[in-house]
Amino acid sequence: MKAFFGLVMLCFALTPALCGVEGPAPTQAVSVPPLPFKHMTLPNGLQVYTVEDHKSPTVAVQVWYHVGSKDDPSGRSGFAHLFEHMMFKGNEHLTADAFDDLTENIGGENNAFTAEDVTVYHEVVPSNYLDPILWAEAERMSALALNEQNFASERDVVKEEYRQRILANPYGEFYLDIDRKSFAVHPYKRPGIGNIAELDASKLPEVRAFHSTFYRPDNATLVVVGDFKQEELDGWIKKYFGAVSKPAEKIPRVTVNEPPRKEDKLETSYSAKAPLAAIAITYLAPSVRSKDAPALSLVEEILAGGVSSRLYQAMVYEQQVAQGVSCSADLHEDLGLLVFRAVLASGKSIEIGKKSLTDQIENVLKNGVTEAELAKAKNRLLTSKLLERETANGKANALGEAAVVYGDAARVNTDLAMMQAVTAAQIKEVLNKYITGKKKVVIEYLPESMKSARKEKSEKKS
Amino acid sequence: MKTRTIFGSVVVFFAAIHFASAIGGIETAPPASAPHEITFVQPKEARLENGLRVIVAERPGLPLMAAELLVRTGAEVDPDGRAGAASMTGSLLTKGTEKMSAPQIASAVESLGGAIDSGARWDASSATVVVMSDKAEPALSILADVILHPAFKQEEIDRLKNQTLDSLRVVLQQPGALARFVTDRVVYGSGEYGHAAGGTMETVEAIQRDDLVKLYKTYYTPENATLILAGDLTLEQGKKYAQQFFGDWKAEPSASQEPARSKAADWKPENIVVDMPEAGQASVTLAQPSIKRDSPDYYTGLVVNAALGTGFVSRLNREIRIKRGLSYGARSAIDSRRSGGSFVASAQTKNPSAAEVAGLLQSELKRLGTEPVQGAELKSRQAVLTGGYARNLETNRGLVAQIASLATYDRPLDTVNKFIPAINAITAADVSAFAAKYFETPSSLVVVGKAPEFLDALKKDFADVKVIPQADLDLNRADLVKVKQ
Question: Span A265-461: which CATH code?
């Protein structure tokens, strides 16, 4: 809903899993058909990727701006996301209802999300509405209607979004803590959803400045997938987007380098809302553009993807120390994090949970993974890519992400081959590369009731 | 002043804009061209000798297959005091069979690149699997094994109970989730849909293996089941698979007796506040009983509901989100089931605005009667429904879910292509008649949040507010209050 994304909510606590018993994994018989995309660059710098596909009489349109929550101005955590909401307010030619009139009200849909590196506006419309929706996207790229009234009201909506995602969720603060505590200096440490104080401090002229700084054709990528005629589409794109001027100023980029960690860190906090203890262990990981990225996506699958994954099998199924587990390689444009998380089962101490998680990590570092585990992970990733490509919107997502975040649209078709080529030895090597000898951050998020229990324990010791 | 019009903001903006030339020289949206017709593949069906219905939606293209084995009975048959039993029965199917352990089932399906899932909802239970179509046979073989030969091992029951209890501990700390538990009780009381489908802390503890085995033996029969397949396969292949994997499923003499339940005829609205001291937001809900799935008013209900609370520009979101910034999103739903239904409108807001949001939900519900849904608004709400329907059916999983719903409620399969015309045939008069018929009765109000921050304001507009401290809440009772020991 003009929604913020990039926050993984409680999903991981519900991920089932079991592992250990290995069935023979079958060999590949099907493959993901390549996306036959076309590319053009307009004179004003706009990148355009299109895929003609007449499977259903709809078309997906996405505009990817290369600006994300890492570009939030100083003291304005949450600004890029707040700005995203303001992109729906129309302009001199676009009414405030224009996007809903051209999508929802004629049977389509629209939304947007703000991630660390990008902000994406996406629509699916009946294909006879392609011409007007392209015009409208070009219009809001060129100028916005902003006034104190619509700004204050939309800021209230974003504050409610913050309350719903963070304050009304027993683990909301835990998710924010993972980035906050894991990065030392890189702006990835600041939560994209922001906080009430910095949202309140944001001012209208800052919104105008943000538009003119980042919302420009040479910082944008248009993706169109679906039921259109190529020549007609290209004509509309040139007519509407070609009319948006390119500013002379350079686009500012984040240049902060996250230094290697010098020491392990333990961060503990307590919550009155959380009924179960939670723990995260994080390591710095490479950019999503790194050649290690495909191996790391397989690591996610092997360790915590599905019911038969290692962490779930050991911690949730066999030992029953955890209620849910996850492993994610959260890779962004500049760098990433390798995050192991567990929400513990009730009655389990944080020490037992931490030891169980650490044992699993050490085991895989020492012994690597089996061929069967690897084959299973490849099959699962392949299926998920096929499922993504059932819809025009799914295809557009894949293409946009490759073009903008990975910096290479061709990766939409080449990543799967790279992933298929990864060996078990490479999995072990890549895990050791980012963990062995590297410093970890451990984040503990504990129910208030554990505070007094811990205090008593330490008093007895001293 | 709190209200403002969209026009007002645009006028103010004229002074502020710094860039005036229209894109492509066009100042208003260029017109749409002629619409393209949309039709969906017509599902075909067959029946095995043991009574199992088989439905196949042939959809070549991507090499995928989605499958669901549907049992037309769900959480509504949970025994008294055993809420969650049907859900647990469904979940345990994939947690071990006579031949395979839980880890073996998971590993086998995931090695195929797929995922297997099972459980129960209202009016139905199911097991589903999605795989690449060249792996249909091994996947369906496992699906059949979990349906025909579940083990219900005590060890797995205990494990699932502990996991369910921990999930409940987390869920019950969220105002929105807790409000949904309370709302079911407020709408259905002690009726068949009043208890928590997934159980409560107390009922999950109380469930015994015998409860689960009894539910399984009574309802998991081929006559009460449907196998639904969609994707890159033909009806002939589907029939062959069904016979191969489910042909040995024995038809049992059907002796199932629906438990007698109280009816909703004596329903009375009430206003309930659950005081949750740690609530980071208040969840505000209006609710009342509504139409059943076989009601002739079903499609009108969908249109009325879409006007009120589906999408960004529905009436609730216009008033609550867009005009006043009071919530990240408001919504409403009519949930029509086999023998009952509910209407629910809700939004989450900061605790101090709970009373204002409650008033807005109520006034918008009234306005459905006084300001009819007609003209452009009616047309747009029909488009929201038909467009959303078409998008859902784009994926094999979405198509299977739609067919499962039709099979659950005995609707003919050609309904797949009748949904869009049925929605488009609804008139403004139909909508007004629906509002008059069903929304004359006041709704119940449920607010879960930090009561001291909104209670005084709420009491000004809502009479007889019953405040239940979170610690005194008993979801197992129709009156929701723990009996004092």
Answer: 3.30.830.10
In terms of Cα–Cα distance, which of A70, A75, A332, A337 is closest to A187?
A70
Tell me if chain B has a CB within 8 Å of the CB of A235: no
Please state, in angstroms and rounded to a whole number, the distance separating the CA atoms of residues A446 and A276: 7
Contacts of B373 (CB under 8 A, 6+ apart): B303, B304, B307, B381, B428, B431, B432
Using CB atoms within 10 A of its CB, is residue A271 exposed (0-12), middle (13-18) or buried (19+)? buried
CATH number at residue B138: 3.30.830.10
pLDDT band at B263 (very low <50, low <70, confident <90, very high): low
With an 8 Å Cβ cutoff, is B321 touching chain A?
yes
Q: What is the DSSP letter of A254?
A: -
Chain A residue with minimum CA distance to B311: A104
Check pLDDT > 70 for residue B311: yes
Whole-model pTM?
0.92
What gap in Å lies between CA B9 and CA A89, rounded to an integer? 9
Best B64, B95, B111 member to test A by mutation, with max A CBs in 10 Å, is B111
Cα A245–Cα A251–Cα A256 angle in degrees, nearest 5: 165
Shared domain check, B159 and B83: yes
Residues B106, B166 share a domain: yes
pLDDT for position B255: 55
Distance of alpha carbon B82 from alpha carbon A343, whole angstroms:
27
Q: Tell me the C-alpha distance between A115 and A5, whole Å.
A: 6
Min Cα separation B97/chain A (Å) = 15
Lowest-confidence pick of A13-22, B370-379, B422-431: A13-22
- Residue that is last in its domain, among B211, B246, B281: B246
pLDDT band with cut points at 50, 70 and 90 for residue B259: low
| Segments of chain A scoring below 50 in pLDDT | 1, 3-28, 461-462
Nearest by CB to A107, which of B312, B322, B384?
B384
Q: Please say if the pLDDT value at position B38 is more than 60.
A: yes
Q: Are residues B463 and B330 in the same domain?
A: yes
What is residue B16's predicted lDDT score, i.e. its pLDDT? 36
A residues 402-461 lying closer than 8 A (beta carbon) to B: none
B240 and B316 share one domain? no
Residues B283, B239 share a domain: no
Whether A232 and chain B come into contact, CB under 8 Å, resolves to: no
Q: Give the pLDDT of residue A455.
A: 61
**For residue B410, what are the contacts with CB-CB under 8 A and spacing of at least 6?**
B294
> What's the complex ipTM?
0.90
At residue B213, the pLDDT reads 97
Strand partners, B346: B285, B331
Give the domain range for residue B292: 266-472
Q: Which residue of B has its CA nearest to A53?
A: B61
- Do B203 and B298 belong to one domain? no
User: Is residue B72 included in any domain, yes or no?
Assistant: yes
A-interface mutation test, from B26, B36, B99, B107, most A Cβ less than 10 A away = B107
The domains spanning A11-17+36-241 and A265-461 adopt the same CATH topology: yes
**B471 touching chain A per CB within 8 A:** no
Q: How many CA atoms lie within 13 A of B221 on its CB side?
A: 16
The total number of structural domains in chain B stands at 2
Say which CATH class A11-17+36-241 falls into: alpha beta
